[in-house]
Automatic annotation (TrEMBL):
Superkingdom in the source lineage: Eukaryota
Plastocyanin-like domain location: 125-237, 249-421, 515-642
GO biological process, one term: iron ion transport
Family: Belongs to the multicopper oxidase family.
TM spans (from-to): 35-56
Protein name (Swiss-Prot/TrEMBL): Multicopper oxidase
């Protein structure tokens, strides 16, 4: 039986302490469940009446700018009866433009509530080809979440899907030492939100964290289908540190894009005799939109579909409106599933000022390569005189050499128009041909050279107590894809491939059965454990300086991401292997002064990298390649940090606990 608290039965239904063991919880739970059952009946009677009475009017609370509140569930019901109706398309010119002054005026921390109704939305067409999407609030792409540093962010997720669970992960957030159970990684630090259930993430934002982030589903391959969007944390401190160098602020969201649901590609990809040949995208999008030149005779219908089922109507590129008299900060996000892209805007220089929420010493480039899940802010510097500014191509050129893309549908030339001319009809815009020579046709698969990025205003990376350049713990991890039993190819970190934990989530077990679980009991002090397919690096001492030394034995590049932390990119090697002598010699291979501090970085094919982080945030944190296909293939592990602390917390949300019980009862 479903033991979950029904929708709307109370947002914050109390907290659970792990000091009580599971048995001691039961009577309290039982009492609560009975109350909840009563509430459920009450709601079943009253809600339909209310809904009728209000004529489907949305009762959405508005806080802050409330930008999510305009677009709620009444969009879902309508379907193909209105093929010209593109209200499903998020108005990114409006939604992704931030009000710089508003956020600077906010001086006191406050709550920011956002409401996400998750549905599988039937057949809309960001690039002209109709397909199913899984979306937030009936729109694509996902809406912007905004807060100030120090605010408390509430994300109220209502999973309205009939059959699919969901989670929402806020990529790059710290979770402030005390609430990593809200990180949203399915089966790791959360049990997924079941179909037709809801969940509220309460994230107390660190007052030292600001910049450009994003959110996405962390359940299976779901985010490829549309469950993602930008997340920006404003800060007057950051603004001052940037010398107030902009007056307009816009998110540019870029993603590679498939013409079918990710789940339809997975059986082939993960099936026998497929040696890690990833599904290739069909297109890429900027602000959720791009052209696709459909030719019926040559179009490859994905996954053996029927060509007579293909529905297409031409779509234009998106137009980003700019004011010639303003200075813009653009926040660029690679929210894709697979590929790196090279980004440029004709006749503009890009002054990079931020990488993954870290201010960097400004550096000016014509273009830059952005790996999956990375973010950059830059100040936009037009080369033409202000009075001559008109229309220009913005381009995100997907690097198909990296991935050996063979899909003949694939359009790697992803564009939008940057327009300074107030226009009526986008199709009338005159845009000069681009003269950009994409990478000079470079067949190398590297991202932007990380050694050119320097964290602003620092003089040293964290060091151990004795001041040495060596870490407290060095963790070497080898990356490979191996064919093992039944001709199945899987991703391996050292010799371990990740599989979803079957009995709730690992954090649930490690916290609530700290002395009696099948993964890692509290008294086990091993640095590495591997039980129940849960490969873990265990750090038990707060403040431990950890270096992750990654050697990539695979020919493909892998953008690695660590949840809940930022790491210092001490070195990236394009060839060969890491050598211990780099710690102490004068080769300058490693930077211990001012390397970039970020949460995602690309490890080149047959290359290596050394990443340093300080283990100071208790939780079970995924460390993984962000290529969605590779995650599904097992290129993921967990960093179990300060289990003795989080297994004593008393603030686990009741619903977090109950949703794990729900899944256990399904076993
Ligand atoms: Cu990968």
């Amino acid at each position: 039986m479903n033991e979950l608290v029904p929708k709307s039965a109370g947002e914050d239904d109390g907290a659970v302490s792990v000091r009580n063991d599971l048995e001691e919880q039961s009577p309290r739970d039982e009492k609560k469940r009975r109350f909840v059952a009563w509430l459920r009946v009450l709601l079943m009677v009253t809600v339909p009446v209310l809904v009728l009475a209000f004529g489907l009017q949305q009762l959405v609370k508005s806080h802050g700018l409330g930008s999510l509140t305009q677009c709620v569930s009444s969009n879902f019901a309508k379907k193909s009866e209105s093929s010209n109706d593109d209200s499903w398309r998020l108005d990114t010119n409006k939604n992704y433009t931030m009000d710089v002054d508003y956020w600077l005026r906010q001086t006191k921390p406050r709550e920011r509530h956002y409401y996400m109704n998750v549905t599988t939305f039937v057949e809309e067409s960001p690039d002209g080809i109709r397909r199913n999407l899984t979306v937030v609030n009936g729109q694509y792409p996902g809406p912007l979440l905004e807060a100030n540093a120090g605010d408390t962010l509430f994300i109220h997720v209502d999973n309205q899907m009939e059959h699919e669970p969901v989670t929402i992960h806020c990529h790059g957030l710290f979770f402030n030492n005390n609430n990593s159970f809200h990180d949203g990684a399915a089966y790791i630090n959360q049990c997924p939100i079941p179909p037709k259930a809801n969940y509220t993430y309460k994230i107390e934002l660190d007052d030292r964290q600001y910049g450009t982030y994003w959110y996405h589903s962390h359940f299976g391959a779901q985010y490829a289908d549309g469950l993602f969007g930008p997340l920006v944390i404003h800060s007057s401190e950051e603004y001052r540190a940037m010398n107030s160098s902009y007056d307009k602020d816009i998110v540019v969201l870029v993603n590679d894009y498939y013409h079918d649901m990710a789940s339809n590609y997975l059986p082939d990809y993960l099936g026998p005799a497929n040696e890690n040949t990833e599904p290739d995208p069909d297109n890429g999008l900027i602000q959720g939109q791009n052209r696709f030149d459909y030719v019926a005779s040559t179009y490859l219908v994905p996954n053996g579909g029927n060509s007579s089922d293909v529905s297409y109507a031409p779509v234009n590129v998106s137009v980003i409106d700019l004011d010639p008299n303003s200075t813009y900060r653009l926040r660029l996000i690679n929210a894709g599933f697979f590929l790196t892209f090279e980004f440029e805007i004709d006749s503009h220089d890009l002054e990079i000022v931020e990488a993954d929420g870290t201010l960097v010493t400004p550096i000016t480039v014509d273009s830059l390569a952005v790996s999956l899940a990375e973010r950059y802010s830059f100040i936009l510097k037009p080369r033409d005189d202000k009075k001559d500014l008109k229309n220009y191509w913005m381009q995100a050129r997907f690097n198909q050499f990296c991935a050996k893309v063979e899909n003949t549908n694939f359009n790697p030339d992803v564009r939008a128009i940057v327009s300074y001319s107030k226009h009526e009809d986008p199709s009338d815009l005159q845009v000069p041909d681009s003269r950009w020579q994409y990478g000079g046709g470079d067949v190398v698969c590297n991202e932007f050279d990380q050694s050119l990025l320097h964290t602003a205003n620092v003089t040293s990376v964290p060091r151990t107590a004795n001041g040495s350049t060596l870490p407290d713990v060095r963790f070497d991890v080898d990356v490979s894809f191996l064919i093992k039993a039944n001709q199945l190819t899987r991703g391996y970190l050292n010799d371990q491939t990740f599989e979803n934990y079957k009995n709730g989530s690992t954090m649930y077990q490690l916290a609530f059965a700290a002395d009696n679980n099948t993964i890692k009991n509290l008294d086990v002090k091993d640095l590495l454990t591997n039980n129940d397919h849960q490969y873990m690096l265990n750090i038990n001492e707060r403040g431990t300086i950890v270096d992750i030394v990654i050697n990539n034995y695979d020919d493909g590049n892998h953008p690695f991401h660590l949840h809940g932390h930022k790491f210092w990119v001490l070195a990236i090697g394009k060839t060969g292997f890491f050598d211990q002598k780099y710690y102490t010699d004068d080769s300058g291979v490693m930077n211990f002064e001012n390397p970039v501090l970020r949460d995602t970085v690309n490890i080149p094919g047959f290359g290596w990298g050394v990443l340093r982080f300080v283990a100071d945030s208790p939780g079970v944190w995924p460390f993984h390649c962000h290529i969605g296909w590779h995650m599904e293939s097992g290129l993921m592990m967990q960093f179990n940090i300060l289990q003795d602390e989080y297994s004593n917390w008393d603030n686990y949300p009741l619903k977090w606990y109950q949703q794990c019980q729900y899944w256990q009862n399904q076993l």
